[in-house]
Write a structure and sequence with these properties.
Elements: H1 9-20, H2 22-35, E1 42-45, E2 50-53, H3 68-79, E3 87-88, H4 95-114, H5 117-131, E4 133-141, E5 147-150, E6 156-158, E7 161-167, E8 172-174, E9 186-193, H6 195-201, H7 218-228, E10 237-244, E11 254-259, E12 262-268, E13 280-284, H8 297-322, E14 326-328, E15 358-360, H9 367-384, H10 401-411, H11 413-440, E16 446-450, E17 458-462, E18 473-474, H12 477-480, H13 485-498, H14 504-511, H15 516-523, H16 525-538, H17 551-562, H18 565-568, H19 572-601, H20 627-642, H21 644-656
Antiparallel strand pairs: 1-2, 3-18, 4-7, 4-13, 5-6, 8-9, 9-10, 10-11, 11-12, 14-15, 16-17
């Protein structure tokens, strides 16, 4: 063990910061032991400054009835109910800025899928719930990403990529006495790794000492190994990576990794394009005004859980003492005790003139004990914000969708701030990811496969300069806020009954029913096709109407999108593409009307099927039409039949998109 004077300055900073943030770290380890490890008969020793197990007591029961675990799982299910969505708002109105913003949004959607941000979000949510604070970190790894070439010895050369990590409270430490992480000049990533792995990672001559688990109690050691993913007996080495952004003391910034008080990597200058903040983004459960780190309600609920276990322990002790039913017999009848057995219906003799043997009825447990259990259960539910509506059960006398919606909204309040904080952290990290791509993704074009709900998968080719500085990403809070699915469906059904909505697409959009895309594809394929066209055209891609489209459905969907906020952020050329596309549908609809007029004038065509799949129009009495009107209708039908109007439409759409016009 190194002497104090031999400690590296970064190790000294780490030790001092740990002393400052010790209350939060102590709460994290205690909460983790209670919830994830199901160890609730513990206490924090001021002597060893570690978690200790309560000494064994064979005379009394020590049950662990874990109410925190199911309550926490319920809240996590609500918090992670809906996937993250990202929007990249342009900071200018010119076409280059708008196209860069759309590209950035597509890249983040692809990274969200490829880098498994939803799994990272779940880890971050648990970290915030257990410790009050969790963090997201981003780095640029030149050894990551898809291989773009082979070296002289045939080793793949990667293109480089961002690496995002979710960290729990023991896995990072930030500069003390700051009110906001943006004010912090430095942070330290804390890793506990197997010594042989550390030796390989940093090309060390010998394995470093297992200083991360040295001197720990068995409980504290097992908790740390569980966090590191190691086996129960594995020794672990402490690895500290120090990140300091440029400041007056260190103008170039630095990144240094130390093991056993020795620098094994770095120092390297600050590599990130942003210098006004760290590459660390915090999320909190309950923010504290004068601190960067937050607190969690689990810390408040933990003593109640302990009292709950003690109450159950008292009941089990009572049951243990009264579970052995005893028989009372007179002293003079001691000779007949050998006749007593447990056979049912057995006849037992006793001496004349004495009382017959009888069982002693054990006392019932006091009703106050059960009231204490119930009270503690309700108190735990109140602290965690978990009630009947959270578990999917409707309270008594609440059956309407509106009532369920109100209760679900009230029940979501405890995790509402936590949801917003996590969404904000992911938005900040996504912005930093785009800035890194803009700075580092140079040379050959990269390929991102974008998967968007209700849309076709598409491929985008890009380089960092195509982002054009558009790196401000937001996560819409309405898109991630927990909602009661049952309440939303009940509300949509009520709206359908009242006539507020009439179509299946309106119902699925209002209720957010699972499998909505498959339902729309099956029931309203034209609506599904129109939505795909909206998505493609918003990205500047050309989409041509077809004469077999249901033009009324297409026009309704296109106009609904043109009235949305997303449409307002599009550039003039894209809006012109929409306008020409909509006008093309109008022209084709007129062409179809001309064809229907021809059908009306020629009774032999009235029953023939048409391309739209619509019902044929019964032929009216043509006797009321003048000969010149009949001739005009036939002429119009002939024009559309010849395809002249369709060719004109294709040329106009191509011109709006800046494409060469078709030749016929």
């Amino acid at each position: 063990m190194a002497k104090k004077q031999d400690r590296h300055p970064i190790k000294e900073r780490y030790d001092k910061a740990v002393e400052v943030w010790k209350p939060q770290l102590r709460d994290y380890w205690s909460n983790r032991a209670f919830i994830l490890d199901n160890r609730q008969w513990i206490w924090w020793s001021n002597t060893t400054d570690q978690l200790e197990l309560v000494p064994e007591d064979t005379d009394h029961a020590r049950p662990t009835i874990n109410r925190l675990w199911p309550g926490s799982r319920t809240l996590m299910g609500k918090l992670l109910q809906r996937e993250l969505t990202f929007e990249n708002h342009p900071n200018d109105v010119d076409d280059r800025a708008i196209q860069g913003a759309r590209l950035g949004e597509s890249i983040i959607r692809a990274i969200h899928h490829d880098h498994r941000w939803e799994a990272m979000r779940e880890k971050l949510s648990w970290a915030v719930w257990l410790g009050g604070t969790g963090a997201l970190a981003v780095e640029w790894d030149p050894k990551a990403g898809k291989p773009v070439a082979l070296s002289d010895v045939g080793v793949p050369i990667p293109q480089g990529d961002t690496v995002e990590t979710a960290l729990s409270l023991p896995e990072f430490i930030i500069e003390p006495y700051v009110q906001n992480v943006r004010q912090a000049r430095w942070w330290i990533r804390v890793q506990a790794l197997a010594p042989e792995r550390v030796k390989f990672m940093y090309s060390l001559e010998k394995e470093p000492p297992a200083d991360a688990t040295f001197g720990l109690t068995s409980l504290q050691g097992s908790l740390m190994r569980g966090l590191a993913g190691a086996s129960a007996s594995s020794p672990l080495t402490l690895v500290l990576t120090y990140y300091e952004r440029p400041n007056e003391e260190t103008p170039a910034g630095q990144i240094v990794t130390i093991v056993d008080n020795k620098e094994v990597e770095g120092p390297k200058p600050w590599p990130f394009p942003f210098k006004d903040r760290l590459n660390l983004f915090l999320a909190t459960e309950t923010p504290v005004d004068d601190q960067a780190l937050g607190r969690t309600v689990v810390t408040i609920a933990r003593p109640i859980q302990s009292a709950y276990n003690v109450a159950w322990g008292a009941i089990m002790d009572h049951l243990d003492n009264v579970s052995n039913v005893r028989m009372a017999i007179p002293q003079s009848a001691i000779d007949i005790m050998d006749q007593v057995s447990d056979r049912p219906g057995e006849m037992l003799t006793f001496m004349d003139g004495m009382d017959k043997p009888s069982y002693i009825v054990p006392p019932n447990s006091p009703s106050d004990w059960w009231r204490i259990i119930e009270t503690l259960s309700l108190q735990l539910d109140d602290e965690l914000g978990v009630h009947d509506i959270s578990r999917g059960a409707a309270p008594v006398n609440i059956e309407s969708g509106y009532g369920l919606s109100v209760l679900a909204e009230q029940d979501s309040t405890p995790i509402g701030k936590m949801t917003k904080s996590i969404a904000f952290a992911f938005a900040e990290m996504a912005s930093a990811v785009l800035q890194l791509y803009e700075s580092e993704a140079k040379g050959a074009k990269r390929t991102s496969v974008v998967t968007t709900p209700d849309q076709m998968t598409r491929t985008v080719r890009w380089t960092g300069k195509d982002l054009a500085g558009q790196t401000t990403v937001v996560v819409p809070l309405d898109a991630v806020a927990p909602r009661s699915q049952a309440a939303m469906q009940a509300f949509a059904e009520k709206a359908l009954q009242m006539g507020l909505i009439q179509t299946v697409q309106q119902f699925t959009r209002l209720s957010e029913i699972p499998g909505a895309r498959d339902m729309i594809d099956a029931v309203a394929p034209d609506v599904a096709r129109a939505r795909r066209e909206n998505h493609a055209m918003s990205l500047g891609q050309v989409r041509f109407p077809e004469d077999w489209d249901n033009h009324a459905d297409h026009l309704a969907e296109h106009n609904a999108f043109r009235k949305s906020a997303a449409y307002e952020t599009l550039g003039p050329k894209v809006k012109e593409l929409f306008a020409v596309h909509v006008q093309a549908h109008e022209t084709l609809a007129g062409a179809e009307a001309g064809k229907m007029s021809m059908r009306a004038l020629e009774p032999g065509l009235a029953g023939a099927p048409n391309a739209q799949g619509a019902l044929p129009v019964p032929p009216p009495d043509a006797g009321g039409l003048l000969p010149d009107q009949i001739a005009e209708a036939q002429a119009v039908g002939g024009v559309f039949k010849a395809g002249q109007a369709e060719q004109e439409i294709l040329d106009r759409i191509s011109a709006a998109a800046g494409l060469p016009q078709t030749s016929g």
